[in-house]
Amino acid sequence: MRCKGWEQEGLLRLLMNSLDPEVAECPEELIVYGGTGKAARDKKSVAQIKERLIRLENDQTLLIQSGKPVGVFPSHPFAPRVIMAGSLLVPAYSDYETFWQLERRGLTAYGQSTASCWAYIGTQGVLEGTANTYGEVAKRHFGGTLRGRWVLTSGLGGMGSAQPLGVEYNGGVVLVVEVDESKVDRRLRNSLCQMKAADLDEALFLVQEAVSRKEPRSVALVGNAADVYREVLQRGLVPDVVTDQTAAHDLLNGYVPAGVSLAEAVRLRVAAPEKYLELSRRCIVEHVKTMMEFMRRGAVVFDYGNNIRHQAAAAGYAEAMTIPGFVSAYLRDYFCAGRGPFRWIALSGRAEDIYTLDEFILTELKDDEEITNWIHFAQARIPFQGLPARICWLNLDQRLCLVDIITKLLREGKLAAPVALTRDHMGAIASPWRETEKMPDGSDAIADWPVLNGLLNAISGASLVSVQQGGGVGIGYSIHAGMTVIVDGSELSRKKATQVTYSDVGVGIIRHADAGYPLAQEISRQYGLNID
Amino acid sequence: MMDEFSARLRRELAYNLVFGMVENVREVWEMVSQAGLKYPPNFATVWEIHNAEELFHGRSELWKVGWRRQVEKSFAGYFNHNALHCFVSDRALAVLFNNREWGKPGEENDQLNALKQGVEKSLAVKFFVGVGRVYSDARHLGLSFNEAWRAIRRVFCGVPGIYYFGDGSARDREPFLERERAALKYAILNDDRQKALRIVQEIKMVLAAFGEGDLNILKMMVFEMLSLVMTACMENGRSADQVFIHALEWIKQLHLAEDAGKMAEIWSEACKRVLLNTNNDHSLEIQVVARARRFMEEHFQEDLSLSEIARRQFISPYYFSRLFKQSTGMTVMEFLTSLRMEKAKELLGKTHQSVSQVAGAVGYVDPNYFSRVFKRYIGMSPTEYRRKFHT
């Protein structure tokens, strides 16, 4: 251990884990995932953060501004060791042009959701969420299973690469289109996708073969999503489900318009950004029009959180907004119940620690089939990337139970080192085109909740708290808070983890209760969270 | 001292990983843990004895067994239990490492060099060492192992050194030409001519748009990239003579070129000439494809899937499907379907089995699906076919 306490040491290990080549998309540029989501502003900042964390006392707090360490303040042991704000801009200036300009001048950095707060654990991080989304699609439209159904989607980046296993988990067949062959190859090497087709004919043959056998199968096809979708439509084929996870949230540095090769895209983005943006806008309209046509012909179509509808609408195709968003359509009930993507990371680097925790979870939470099925699936199919970790959608009681299990096992010496508890940015996020789309009281754009979430977590015992903007849907479209707490077996850490878990989940529940969801109101009463 | 049980466990794990026999992530970790390793291996090497014929000449089988045991013992001593090894032929071992403990595979890896020297000294033999790429998922070590074999097979001059499989996996955000170069090398090493030619054209467009920059720098860049293409072709087993014959003429012209457009033209023509007019030796690929064809001919009546066929060849479905298509011009499933259709024609024409029985006999569980496929391939339904051709 290099630091003066496990909180600092744990956070340092999480930072380095985010930049591990097994985890990060492009560690040399500090890019962790999601287009350009970075773990720190620049290499100098990484070195400074490391050095500061090593020297940081147990009653001090390090401040990080958009990936750059800016100060160390005296605090107290119950306070966070690290507080960060990332990618935030004053609302009237919160657009990509301003952000890129400031980013080029080295004044800010894009942190995506879990990249800048060092909570990214590789593809597993979104896998269960993806599996749950497709599970809900199956429940609501196909009698509870995707067996014998096929999903047409695209994008095999950090987020999209969860789709093949997510569909397979529900028994379905998926054809994923990805423009970058190296990403396809990487997903195949990591067992996240079963096979690569040489061309569309082969892809459709493989899909149809698996559909007729009712076997789960994932097929990747190198190509441009807009082109392939149109070709599928022109052949008169209608998939059962159509969605998209290309990097449509960023029309310049993420999305690749049809007719432009990947190499040409890299050149044009720098040489002629305006022209590139124009091509992207034109293409995305056609891309979404095709998706709409699939919807008209009976496919289940939804926006998978990359803001593709809004990009098409902003480019002049207003009808795009009739495509439903995945959270409002399929996941809202989970958030009302305070159930969301929780993750724990073994700071020892030993997979045995995660398997030990799996066993306890399988025993303690054996009545929850969603959890037990997921843990069994994850054990069999998902290799660890970097520090061994596990993601699982848990509610408040289950998270508190996990805090107790970890503390107990650490005290008994059954885990090799402390464990970091963290989560994705979903419960109290403000993201009007994704997590908070179509709230019943119209409060979609209210951004007080994530700020309250961050402030409350800071006084409740979190080891790291962040307030950020732009995660998932891009700059100007979301504000969210991150939280990590290190559990080291001590009484202090147990108290901190218990308190912050309660606060963190609680804010998410009351946000949904306040919006008028009866389920959230009921749950908030159960936990004594409401003030009525 | 490692006991015999532990040694057997480690050897078994090495075989399982090399031949892709473990599919469950947790099982991998449990076996790794039982074998006393801190991390699962993530890259494979092949150590082939130099001058094996000479070494084994006139020796009895008993002597060879004893010698191999001595080799294993020596390897175990040097690896300090941080690597797995097993014999994969009478003269070659697979050794599996993790790059956290042994460093990344590459020229700058001193640990592998030192290890090789130590082992050679203790056994008084030299080794050719082939090194595959890193696969973070240990279930794919079979691919790394195949790459390690290929790296040795590309050795021209016979020096028993360390040979690395070319790492062409382009990173997501490298500068344009670096990325293209890596992709080009990768395509050539994987025999994907179509893709290689596509990348050549993309590079040509960029070169042609070079504009008013320093033409000497551009000339050097083109020269360097041509060298890369030539080296990759030779690494892939193409004859050095052929490669040089086709490239040299264009290199002379490159020297005389005076504008970017001309250089772009030369680049494209030289690459086309080298890529299209040289041949390589695909002995491993041919073996795999031949084995797979035999397997399908013997088992077409079973409910086979692409993954199952690939698994029987110990390679990943995606690698296998590409290999098969390159070699035969057909996808695996097209081949299997045509095989089944031929057999179905025969059964329909020569027997009185019902269409359902014929479907089952050629591997289709669902007779309706069989009829649809038959109609698509043969142009008429099974019943019509029987009516016309039954003898």
Report on the architecture of this protein.
The complex is a heterodimer of chains A (532) and B (391). Chain A is α/β, with parallel strands linked by helices and 532 residues long. Chain A is built from 18 helices and 16 strands. Chain A has an eight-stranded mixed sheet with strand order 4-3-5-15-16-14-12-13, sandwiched between helices. A six-stranded parallel sheet of chain A has the order 8-9-7-6-10-11, sandwiched between helices. The termini of chain A are far apart. The mean pLDDT of chain A is 94. By secondary structure, chain B is α+β, with helices and mostly antiparallel strands. Chain B folds into three domains: 4-164, Alpha-Beta Plaits; 176-277; 283-389, Homeodomain-like (Arc Repressor Mutant, subunit A), CATH 1.10.10. Chain B has a five-stranded mixed sheet. The A-B interface holds A 22, 25-26, 28-29, 31, 180-183, 185-186, 188-191, 194-198, 202, 205-206, 209-210, 212-213, 215, 261, 263-264, 266-267, 351-352, 355, 379-385 and B 23-26, 29, 33, 135-140, 143, 169-173, 176, 179-180, 183, 195, 199, 202-203, 205-206, 303, 305-307, 316-318, 321-322, 325, 331, 333-334, 365-366, 369.
